[in-house]
Amino acid sequence: MSTTQNLLIKKMTYDPIVQPRDADPERVKEFILSMKHDEHIPPIKVGIRNNRYVVIDGTHRLEAAKKMGLDSIRADIINEREEVWPALAVFYNDKASKPLTPEQRKRKIIVCWDRGLSTDDIAKYVGRKKTYIYEVLRPAMEQKRKEREERDMRILELYEQGLTQQKIAEKVGVSRERVTQITNNVNVSANGKTNKICKMKERNEKILDIMAVLRK
């Protein structure tokens, strides 16, 4: 999963999506003291992007090394795809001496989901049970479901007004394929006016998953 190397500090960078926390000055001082006395400091965790090292875990250790004027720092290069880096940051931070607050953890989990990571992967990389992940995500999933339904109704309203699929896509801000998918689920009456939606073929699968889990 990872390899440990001494990496150049000047090639380190932060991504606020992956590691959003600012360094605590007092925590940085603690690491500086430990480094001065050659105490064992665990390697930081990084991922590689565009020949730069994105910090996944180890903000305080890195900032301490910078203040000491070091050129390099021991780091584990994480060989995982970028989508899971925020989840891994939660996992490592939860094991730190100063872990994430519950609200910070929840926000990070929602970020992972917003970026397309499946609930299975979030649970796996964060190191939490799937039921916990569902409970955290339930409000965000419900909100997204409502937004999607409102958007789909807007598509149908514009369709009934006679706009082309391309124009609808541009106005609503979705792909033309999505417009086609929604409008194909509409019955057209004899006089050419559309009836109400037959019934959307797609339901929010994630919401259904949640309900199934909560019923257990």
UniProtKB/TrEMBL annotation:
Domain ParB-like N-terminal: 5-94
Record-given protein name: ParB-like N-terminal domain-containing protein
SUPFAM superfamilies: ParB/Sulfiredoxin, Sigma3 and sigma4 domains of RNA polymerase sigma factors
A GO BP entry: DNA-templated transcription initiation
InterPro entries given in the database record: Chromosome_partition/occlusion, ParB/Sulfiredoxin_sf, ParB_N, RNA_pol_sigma70_r4, RNA_pol_sigma_r3/r4-like
A Pfam family assignment: Sigma70_r4
Gene3D superfamilies: Conserved hypothetical protein from pyrococcus furiosus pfu- 392566-001, ParB domain, Homeodomain-like
GO molecular function: DNA-binding transcription factor activity
GO CC, alphabetical: chromosome
PANTHER family in UniProt: CHROMOSOME-PARTITIONING PROTEIN PARB-RELATED
Organism name: Thermodesulforhabdus norvegica
